Amino acid sequence: MDEYLRGSGVPVTITLDNKEGTDLTSINDDLQELKNMFRVQQENMMQMQMQYNQKLFHQIEEEKNQLKEVFHQEIGELKRLVNRHESERVSELRLSLEETAASAEVMKEELVAERKKSLWQKLFRKSQLTKFGT
Questions:
Q1: Domain interval for residue 59
Q2: Considering its fold, how many domains does the chain have in total?
Q3: What's the pTM value of the predicted model, to 2 decimals?
Q4: Tell me: the pLDDT tens digits for 10-35?
Q5: Distance CA 24, CA 14 (A)
Q6: DSSP-derived 3-state class of residue 99
Q7: Which of 56-60, 122-126, 130-134: highest mean pLDDT?
């Protein structure tokens, strides 16, 4: 494995200069600081994601409420149209019924007049027959 790594140009051992601040304690401190920075950054990212999710949720709720309002308005308009159509139909039927009733009344009057006429004709004929002796 060492030979493969050396052949690839990857150092097998890490050498450190004995300069100040490069001892093992300093490296551990730097590593801990990097971990803390990463954790803080991760927390910030999670916070930002939560805020974004909440904003998105509120937008969706608002759009849902707007759609619901439009839906109710459309339903109301459809109900008004249906009611108006039904009212027009009822008016047409009422007018037709009134015309039929008026026509029936005219026919009734004509029948009554015909009966009276017929009755007078019968009476008149009988009286003419008795006058002329037949």
A1: 2-132
A2: 1
A3: 0.45
A4: 666 655 555 555 566 788 888 899 99
A5: 12
A6: helix
A7: 56-60
